[in-house]
Amino acid sequence: MAKRTRMTEMEAYAVKTRQSEPVGSRGKGTLLLERKASGAILAYYRERTPESDKRLLLGTLIKKPKIGTDERSLDEMRAEALRVSNDAATAGGLAKYLEHQIELKAAAEAVRVAAAELVEIERIECQRLAEIEASRGTLSDLFLDYIEDRRGKATPGVVKELERLFKANLKEPHPAIIQMKARDIRADHILKVLNPIWERGSKVQADRMRSFLVAAFNHGLTVESVVGRSNSKVYSLEVNPAAMVKVEKVSAPVERALSDAELRQFWETIQNTEGVGPVMALLFKFVIATGGQRIKNIIETTWADYDLDAGTVLLAHRKGRGGQTMSRPHLVPLTGRAVKLMRYVREINGDHLWPWTTHGKQPFVITSPTHAVADWLDTVHAILEGQKVPAFSPRDLRRTCTQLMQKHGIDDRLSDLLQAHGQTGVVSKHYRNNPEAALPEKRRAIELFDRALAKTLGEAEGTGNVLPISRRKKKITGPLS
User: Fold this and answer.
1) How many domains are there within the chain?
2) 167 closest CA partner among 353, 364, 318, 365
3) Which residues contact 38 (CB under 8 A, 6 or more apart)?
4) What are the distances in angstroms from CA 47 to CA 26, 42, 53, 58, 278?
5) Does 473 score more than 50 pLDDT?
6) Whole-angstrom Cα distance, residue 395 to residue 292?
7) How far is Cα 174 from Cα 418, in angstroms, rounded to an integer?
8) Domain span holding position 192
9) Angle at 335 (CA atoms; ends 330, 336), nearest 5 degrees
10) Are 226 and 265 members of one domain?
11) What gap in Å lies between CA 20 and CA 23, rounded to an integer?
12) Which CATH number do you get for residue 57?
């Protein structure tokens, strides 16, 4: 048998049909080159045995192979054929080698698929966690969610106050804190919110702000379990950080009542105070003329609540936790003095929904009367016999009227009925729930009160009337004083 020899490069690259050369020693197989009709030379590792003749494609033979393809040079084909020959010998033949390669590829594919599945699982989990994190509400989300929950339950004034406190005490001074997740808020963050309020002297407001924050977090602790909830934000709260913070209670003065001289001076000069408009001055006089009704309830009235011909105004008392849903009607009789005051207001604001408004877009905010009293206290009008009138708030006018009735011998029962004191409980809710039924008794109370007020104001008996005010005038003058 002739000795097998290796091809020269010229022979290899110029092969016309087929040509082969041994791979290593005898029995190691051969490197077979075969030119196809396209002109491409394909290289195979060939193993011939008495039982079989098998080939394994190694690639395309080319002098200058391109990276990333199955093209190889002659030397590279020889090296590859030798590697396959050795691996096949180890495996027990090319057939078993190919079977093993299939198994390896299947295993590699399984690993690749498993890895891809793991990557996908991790991606889905990361997306899920990101969605959960995005759905977790911030402190801003929580407080605004709480405000929305109070709509329809609390009075519009309370909701407006919540919105004001959110803007003044959270949104503007603490933008970083309100963007924190609500679950990450701690007591020290609450302190950062409350301390500046306390330090600027607004101690009562600091206590109120703390109460609202406690209520907001209590809302967040339970709201996720509410069926039919429209807000998709979750808070994942475990504790109420605001409840851990304590605000020193500040006892607001609750015994201040104006003396007869102070009341008369306030009545006569409030309309002449710089910064106090005519409607605000009339509001104070109307509160006094109606026996000290709650100023907040009066501010919330619309013209539809007044029947000046019948001499009544219907107030809605929403004091206590029931808020808007537990409002109680309180029909207040009006004296000739109060009716004329309202006719002056109608000359000014008769085109608006509310009597007690500056521009008609909304009624006075609850803090406006407080500012007006403060303006009056800063003027020379608040000096009596060389002494400055001690500070008081609009709420103290109610107490002043109560004590005025006491001083003039008006029965406490009539006083309480007129001011809607103690009109709560099962009996009032279910049996004494007709606001008109008590009107005769209230009229008797208001008539007695108006006589006492006339004496305090130094009016001649039988007077209590006032003259109309021009809609164009900026201040109340003349008989209104």
Assistant:
1) 3
2) 365
3) none
4) 11, 16, 6, 13, 114
5) no
6) 9
7) 45
8) 139-244
9) 145
10) no
11) 9
12) 3.30.160.390
Return the amino acid letter for 320. G
CB 242 within 8 A of CB 213: yes
More confident residue, 28 or 131: 28
Shared-domain flag, residues 288 and 333: yes
Which residues contact residue 198 at a Cβ distance below 8 angstroms, ignoring those fewer than 6 apart?
206, 247
Q: With 90 as the cut, is the pLDDT of residue 268 above it?
A: yes
Strand partners, 154: 151
pLDDT at 426 over 80: no
Q: For residues 241 and 187, is the Cβ–Cβ distance under 8 A?
A: yes
SS3 for 127? Answer: helix
Q: The tokens 């698929």 sit on which residue?
A: 113
Which pTM was predicted? 0.53
CA distance 274 to 356: 19
For the domain that residue 156 is a member of, what is the CATH number? Answer: 1.10.150.130
**Measured distance CA(177)–CA(138) in Å, rounded:** 9
DSSP string over 223-283 = GGG-TT-----B----S-GGGG---------------HHHHHHHHHHGGGSTT--HHHHHH
Token readout for 315 is: 């107030």
Distance CA 20, CA 33 (A): 6
Cβ proximity of 299 and 395 under 8 Å: no
Q: What is the DSSP letter of 303?
A: G
